[in-house]
């Protein structure tokens, strides 16, 4: 098979189309794609190719005018794929029975949600409110959160893909800010013949850290990975053919490593919890002037004491003469790539709902979507949310079995 390198972006969706194209689903879904209104959110959940697959399976797709612009997908591309262009968000919500978006609805969008809508989006646990939960419950909305979707293999497919992008991008960002024109030391990550490479210290050994390490090694940097989970460190050493240096994240090793670091990638986190703060203010103050910190877990509070959230429009600040990049939504800056990643995970779930004959039937058989559901039939279904908001909850398996 001859592959045009200029068309490799399309390979994934073409493979997806071949695998998923089949006869029409049991029920036809009316799927709405509103334009994202959250600050700095540039992604959209479905590509035109994904829309084409859904149309081929008998579903209807409505997309708000301009919804794909920030990811460089035009209205014409969506129309050619079979989507109907909605010229207002109110029209879109009224025509749709299922809303698929990246960020959770904003307060302005709450009133657009209608009784029995299905909502598929991220929840952004750190920013969600009890009012939002009350609205979903009162309107009998089935709400499925990207960060809760977990398959039988215990993987979180959407979270994993975004972490892969974040890890790779974090090193790309750091390399940029090491340049003198952006306030850095004026060094290359990989060095050249006779000149040693930069030192990259990665905090944590999860998915984000793995992809950060892969990218940093690709640049030719010297890479240290630090974590307190020896099993994770061992896995990463083996996965990267022992080309990295690992150490436990204790005070002694952290203090020493940061003194030599040109780049620090903060990726220490625990699912569903606040990120542990491993790096103190003093450690940052002792780093080399012009070094770069990229805290990828700032949406969970950050793992570096001097971190505070920034935005894509104003991404960096200087503290102790160290450049800090702390944007919570790194994948949004590569919106087209991130949209393809989202699309390739989401389209099979949408087809599964249609093939099963509806959302209730699908939740009974589809482990990932069942795990992803946090509001169903006027009940909160996640104990973690119940604890946060002091609200009652019921297990979703019981709600489905009782046919409420």
UniProtKB/TrEMBL annotation:
Gene3D superfamilies: NAD(P)-binding Rossmann-like Domain
Keyword Oxidoreductase found: yes
Annotated GO CC locations: plasma membrane
The keyword Ubl conjugation belongs to this UniProt entry's keyword annotation: no
Protein's GO biological process: L-alanine catabolic process
Residue intervals of the Alanine dehydrogenase/pyridine nucleotide transhydrogenase N-terminal domain: 32-166
Enzyme class label: oxidoreductase
Family per similarity comment: Belongs to the AlaDH/PNT family.
Name of the protein in question: alanine dehydrogenase
Originating species: Halalkalibaculum roseum
């Amino acid at each position: 098979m001859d592959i045009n390198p200029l068309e490799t972006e399309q390979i994934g969706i073409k493979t997806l189309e071949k695998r998923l194209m089949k006869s029409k689903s049991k029920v036809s879904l009316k799927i709405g794609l509103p334009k994202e209104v959250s600050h700095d959110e540039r992604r959209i959940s479905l590509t035109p190719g994904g829309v084409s697959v859904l149309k081929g399976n008998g579903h209807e797709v409505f997309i708000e005018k301009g919804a794909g612009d920030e990811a460089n997908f035009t209205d014409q591309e969506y129309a050619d794929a079979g989507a109907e262009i909605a010229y207002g968000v109110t029209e879109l919500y009224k025509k749709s029975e299922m809303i698929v978006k990246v960020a959770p609805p904003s307060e302005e969008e709450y009133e657009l949600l209608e009784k029995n809508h299905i909502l598929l989006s991220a929840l952004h646990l750190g920013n969600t409110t009890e009012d939002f939960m009350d609205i979903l419950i009162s309107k009998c909305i089935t709400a499925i959160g990207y960060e809760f979707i977990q398959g039988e293999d215990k993987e979180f497919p959407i979270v994993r893909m975004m972490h892969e992008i974040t890890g790779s991008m974090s090193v790309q960002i750091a390399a940029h800010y090491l340049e003198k024109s952006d306030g850095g030391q004026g060094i290359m990550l990989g060095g050249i013949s006779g000149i040693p490479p930069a030192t990259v210290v990665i905090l944590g050994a999860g998915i984000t850290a793995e992809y950060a390490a892969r990218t940093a090694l690709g640049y030719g940097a010297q890479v240290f990975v630090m974590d307190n989970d020896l099993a994770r460190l061992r896995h990463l050493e083996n996965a990267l053919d022992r080309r990295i240096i690992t150490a436990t994240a204790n005070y002694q090793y952290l203090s020493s490593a940061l003194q030599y670091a040109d780049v620090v990638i903060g990726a220490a986190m625990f699912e569903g919890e606040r990120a542990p703060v491993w790096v103190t203010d003093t450690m940052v103050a002792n780093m080399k002037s012009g070094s770069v910190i990229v805290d990828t877990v700032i949406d969970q509070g950050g793992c570096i004491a001097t971190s505070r959230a920034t935005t894509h429009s104003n991404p960096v600040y200087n503290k102790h003469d160290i450049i800090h990049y702390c944007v919570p939504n790194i994948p949004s800056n590569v919106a087209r790539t991130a949209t393809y990643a989202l699309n390739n995970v989401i389209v099979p779930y949408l087809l599964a709902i249609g093939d099963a004959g509806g959302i209730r039937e699908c939740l009974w058989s589809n482990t990932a979507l069942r795990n992803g559901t946090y509001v169903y039939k006027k009940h909160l279904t996640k104990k973690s949310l119940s604890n946060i908001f002091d609200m009652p909850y019921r297990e979703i398996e019981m709600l489905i079995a009782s046919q409420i």
